[in-house]
Write a structure and sequence with these properties.
Protein name: Glycosyl hydrolase family 20, domain 2
GO molecular function, one term: hydrolase activity, acting on glycosyl bonds
Number of helices: 25
CATH topology of the largest domain: TIM Barrel
CATH class of the largest domain: Alpha Beta
Structural class: alpha/beta
Mean pLDDT: 94
Radius of gyration: 27 Å
Low-confidence stretches: 1-5, 11-19, 324-328
Shape: globular
Helix content: 40-55%
Number of strands: 18
Largest sheet: 8 strands, parallel, barrel
Strand content: 5-15%
Distance between the termini: 62 Å
Pfam families: Glyco_hydro_20b
Organism: Catalinimonas alkaloidigena
CATH superfamily of the largest domain: Glycosidases
Keywords: Glycosidase, Hydrolase, Signal
C-alpha cells in the first residue's frame, strides 16, 4: 500500500516507477508466523510501484530466517542482480527487513537499486503504554470519548501497522480491572457485567488485537492495577464496598475471596488468549495501608501464582513501586528497593515466567520530555539498588510518559537520540512511551468542518512514534531517514518542514527542564499550565509562578535564584542555563523555525497545512516564553533593586509575550476546537463529573496571560 499523501506526487511517482516495472516473485523460505504479514507488506508496496507479483518472475525476492547468523530482531538485505534476499534473525527481524524494503520503494528507489543493508536492535523492549478507555485509571470524558474508536478492530490494525513500521515491539494495555472485559470468570461468573452476546464481542475484540499483534511480531501485555473487583463482585460478596467507583487511592481489601478471584482470572486470561504474551503488575493502586512487603506478598499470591497455574509460560512486567509506599508504612526507600529487588529476582527464577523480567521505573516521574538527565523517578530519589550489583535475570525499563502535549505535532530527533544514549547502560532493556492522560485514538482536536486526510489521533503524531521507535531500535538511525519521511508525505517542502519541526519542538522540552514537576498534572507544557498545589487546580503559569519555580534540571537557574545571585554580586558559570540564556536560545531556534516554514502554505494537503501551523504555534509559544522570561527577570529585579526602568522593561517584555500568545490563538483557533483535558477533571477537590465540561484552548487562557502585564504594572519595589 503506497503511503504518499500528495495526489500529484503520487501520479508522477507511479509514472516514473512504471518505467522500471517488472514481474516479481516472492519466495517464503520460512514458515514463521510473521512471514505472511511480511510478504503481504512487500507485495502491497511492489504493486503500488507498478510491479506485477506473480508465481514466477524476472526478479525474485526471498524471505528467510537465520537465527544462527543473526541476532533476534536483526535483519539483512542482500541484493544480487535480479534477486534480493531478506533475512531476519527471527520472525520479527524478517518483518523489519521487509518493511525496510517497503520504505525504500516508497521513497522512490527502483527495485534493482536497493542496496545491501543490515540493522540490529539496540534495546530489546520498545513498548507503547496504551490506557484503555474502559475502567480508566483517571476519570474524564477526555478518556471515555475514545470507547467507540477503541472497539473497532480497524483502529487497532492501523495502530499495530504503525508500531511495526516504527519497530515498536510491545503493546501494553492498561486499566484498573481488565479481566472481565476479556473473560467471564469460570469460578466467579457473578463478577461479569456482560450478557453472552456482549462477552462474545469483547472476546472478538481482544482476540483480534492479540492475534494481529503477534502476526506483526509485537508482544502484548495486560496491565491491571491491583486490588480492584467489579461492582457486581463486590456486591455479591460484600467486599471492597468502599471502592465501587474505582478510585485508585484506596485501602487494600485483602479478603481471601478477592485473592482467589484475582488468581483465577489471571490463569483463565492466559489460557483463553494464547496470543497474549504476558502480564504486568503494579504496587500502589488499591493497596492503601499496606507495607511494601505486604504488597509484594499479595502480588505473589495472586498475579504471579495465577501465571504459574496457567498451562503455558508467559512474560512479566514488574513495575517498581514509588517511594510514597514507604515511610509510615514500615520501610525506608532503600529497604523498599531491596524488598522489590528480591521479589523481581525470585520471579525471574520461576519456570512459568519467560525471562528477562522487565522491571519498570518512571523516568523523571511523569515528565521525561524535559531533560535527558535522570533527575528523579516516581516518588523522588532513587538509590541504585536495582542495578548495583548488576542484575542478570531482569532488565530495567524506563517509562517515558508524555503528559505534556497531545494536540500540537512534535518531534526532536537529537533529543530522543541523546535520551536513549545517555540512559542505556547494560542493565537497561528498553522504554515505554505513551500517556496516562491521553489516548491516541479519536481525533478530538480538529475543529468541525476542517478538512482532514487522517482518521486517528496517533496519525497526527506520526513523527513522535517514528522517532522513539526507530531510535530505540537503532540509535544510529540518521536524520536522513526522518527527513525522507517528510518528503515522502509532503514532497520537496518536507525538507524545510523537518528542520523547522526539530527546532520549534525544543520549546516544551525547555519549559519542562526549567520548571520542576512531578506527577501528571504538575505540568502541561503545551498549554503552559501547571497544578496549583494549594488550590488543587490546573492553572496558567503566571509570571510570579515562573519567577519562584525551581528548575527540574539543576543545570538551569530559576528567575528568583538568578536575580538573587546577581543582586548579591555573584556570577554563574558557563555550564549553567540562566533565564536570559534560555530566552536567547528559545528566540534563536524559534525564529529560525519560522524562517524555515515561511511561504510553505502553497499546498492543499490538510496534513501539511496543519503540520506547518503546529510548527508556527510551537515557535510562537517559544517566543512568548522568551519574552516572559525576560519580563520575569526585569520584574524581579525591580522588586529587589527598584528602578522605574526595570519596571517599564518588565511591562514591555510581558506585553510582547502577550502579542506572541495572540499569534498562537490566531494560528490555532481556525484549526482546533476547545478540547477536553484530563487535567481539568480532577481539580478543586470535587468529583470529576463537576469539572468534566471544562475545555482547553489557548484562547481561553488569554485573560490570564494578559494579567501578567497587570502584575508588572502593580508591582512595588522592595516587595520581592
Amino acid at each position: 500500500m503506497c503511503r504518499l499523501r500528495n495526489p500529484t506526487l503520487l501520479l508522477c511517482f507511479l509514472f516514473a516507477q512504471a518505467l522500471h516495472a517488472q514481474s516479481v516473485v516472492i519466495h517464503r523460505a520460512t514458515d514463521v508466523l510473521q512471514a505472511e504479514y511480511a510478504a503481504r507488506r512487500v507485495q502491497e508496496a511492489l504493486q503500488a510501484n507498478g510491479h506485477a507479483v506473480e508465481v514466477s518472475g524476472a526478479f525474485a525476492i526471498t524471505l528467510q530466517v537465520d537465527s544462527t547468523q543473526l541476532a533476534p530482531e536483526a535483519f539483512v538485505l542482500r541484493p544480487d542482480r535480479n534477486q534480493l534476499e531478506i533475512t531476519g534473525g527471527d520472525g520479527r527481524g524478517l518483518v523489519y527487513g521487509c518493511l525496510s524494503l517497503v520504505e525504500a520503494l516508497q521513497n522512490g528507489m527502483a527495485l534493482g537499486d536497493v542496496a545491501a543493508h543490515s540493522e540490529t536492535a539496540k534495546l530489546p523492549f520498545r513498548a507503547v503504554k496504551f490506557d484503555l478507555p474502559w475502567d480508566t485509571y483517571r476519570h474524564s470524558y477526555a478518556l471515555t470519548q475514545h470507547q467507540e474508536t477503541c472497539r473497532d478492530l480497524a483502529f487497532w490494525e492501523a495502530f499495530l501497522d504503525m508500531m511495526a513500521e516504527n519497530r515498536l515491539n510491545a503493546l501494553t494495555v492498561w486499566n484498573l480491572h481488565p479481566y472481565t472485559f476479556m473473560i467471564r470468570p469460570k469460578d466467579f461468573p457473578e463478577a461479569s457485567p456482560w450478557t453472552e452476546v456482549e462477552m462474545a464481542d469483547w472476546k472478538t475484540l481482544f482476540g483480534g488485537i492479540f492475534r494481529m499483534a503477534r502476526e506483526r511480531g509485537i508482544d502484548t501485555y495486560v496491565m491491571p492495577f491491583n486490588i480492584f473487583v467489579t461492582p457486581e463482585f463486590a456486591k455479591a460478596h460484600h467486599v471492597a464496598m468502599d471502592n465501587l467507583e474505582h478510585h485508585f487511592f484506596v485501602r487494600g481489601d485483602t479478603s481471601d475471596i478477592i485473592k482467589r478471584y484475582t488468581r483465577a482470572c489471571v490463569t483463565q486470561l492466559l489460557e483463553e488468549y494464547p496470543d497474549l504474551t504476558g502480564m504486568g503488575l503494579t504496587l500502589g493502586e488499591g493497596m492503601g495501608g499496606m507495607t511494601p512487603q505486604e504488597r509484594e506478598d499479595w502480588i505473589t499470591e495472586t498475579i504471579i501464582a495465577g501465571m504459574c497455574d496457567a498451562n503455558r509460560t508467559s512474560k512479566l512486567i514488574h513495575r517498581i513501586p514509588f517511594s510514597g509506599n514507604t515511610g509510615s508504612l514500615g520501610a525506608t526507600t532503600v529497604e523498599m528497593e531491596q524488598i522489590t529487588r528480591r521479589s523481581v529476582e525470585r520471579e525471574s527464577q520461576l519456570p512459568c515466567i519467560e525471562g528477562p523480567v522487565w522491571a519498570d521505573l518512571k523516568f523523571n516521574w511523569s515528565h521525561p520530555l524535559s531533560t535527558p538527565k535522570l533527575i528523579k523517578v516516581h516518588g523522588g530519589k532513587i538509590y541504585g539498588t536495582y542495578w548495583d550489583p548488576l542484575p542478570t535475570d531482569y532488565k530495567i525499563t524506563w517509562t517515558a510518559r508524555n503528559e505534556d502535549f497531545f494536540c500540537l505535532r512534535w518531534g526532536v530527533p537529537d533529543f530522543i537520540r541523546t535520551h536513549i544514549r545517555q540512559n542505556s547502560p547494560p542493565y537497561v532493556g528498553g522504554y515505554f512511551i505513551g500517556s496516562e492522560t491521553y489516548i491516541p485514538a479519536k481525533d478530538y482536536f480538529t475543529r468541525p468542518g476542517v478538512k482532514t486526510n487522517w482518521r486517528y489521533a496517533f496519525e497526527r503524531q506520526w513523527l513522535y512514534y517514528q522517532l522513539w521507535g526507530r531510535l530505540l531500535y537503532n540509535d544510529d538511525t540518521p536524520d536522513a531517514v526522518f527527513r525522507a519521511a517528510f518528503v515522502r508525505r509532503y514532497g520537496k517542502p518536507g525538507n524545510a518542514l523537518f528542520e523547522a519541526s526539530a527546532l520549534a519542538g525544543k520549546t516544551p522540552l525547555r519549559l519542562a527542564a526549567s520548571f520542576d514537576c512531578t506527577w501528571d498534572f504538575t505540568l502541561y507544557s503545551e498549554g503552559f499550565m501547571a497544578l496549583n498545589q494549594e488550590a488543587h487546580r490546573e492553572e496558567y503559569i503566571s509570571v510570579d509562578w515562573q519567577i519562584r519555580q525551581p528548575p527540574l534540571d539543576p543545570a538551569y537557574v530559576s528567575v528568583q535564584a538568578y536575580v538573587d545571585t546577581l543582586t548579591a554580586g555573584g556570577v554563574f558559570s558557563n555550564e549553567r542555563v540562566t533565564p536570559p540564556q534560555l530566552a536567547d536560545d528559545l528566540e534563536r531556534d524559534c525564529r529560525q523555525a519560522l524562517a524555515q516554514v515561511k511561504g510553505l502554505n502553497g499546498t492543499d494537503n490538510p496534513a501539511f497545512v496543519q503540520e506547518v501551523a503546529d510548527v508556527k504555534a510551537w515557535a510562537n509559544l517559544g517566543l512568548y516564553f522568551a519574552e516572559k522570561l525576560r519580563g520575569a527577570v526585569a520584574l524581579q529585579t525591580y522588586r529587589m533593586q527598584g528602578g522605574a526602568k526595570n519596571q517599564q522593561t518588565a511591562i514591555q517584555h510581558l506585553e510582547k509575550a502577550l502579542g506572541y500568545w495572540d499569534v498562537v490563538i490566531a494560528i490555532t483557533r481556525p484549526l482546533y476546537q476547545d478540547m477536553p483535558l484530563v487535567h481539568f477533571s480532577e481539580q478543586d477537590n470535587r468529583p470529576w463529573q463537576e469539572n468534566d465540561h471544562l475545555r482547553f484552548h489557548w484562547a481561553n487562557l488569554r485573560p490570564a496571560v494578559a494579567h501578567d502585564v497587570e502584575i508588572a504594572r502593580q508591582a512595588k519595589a522592595g516587595t520581592p
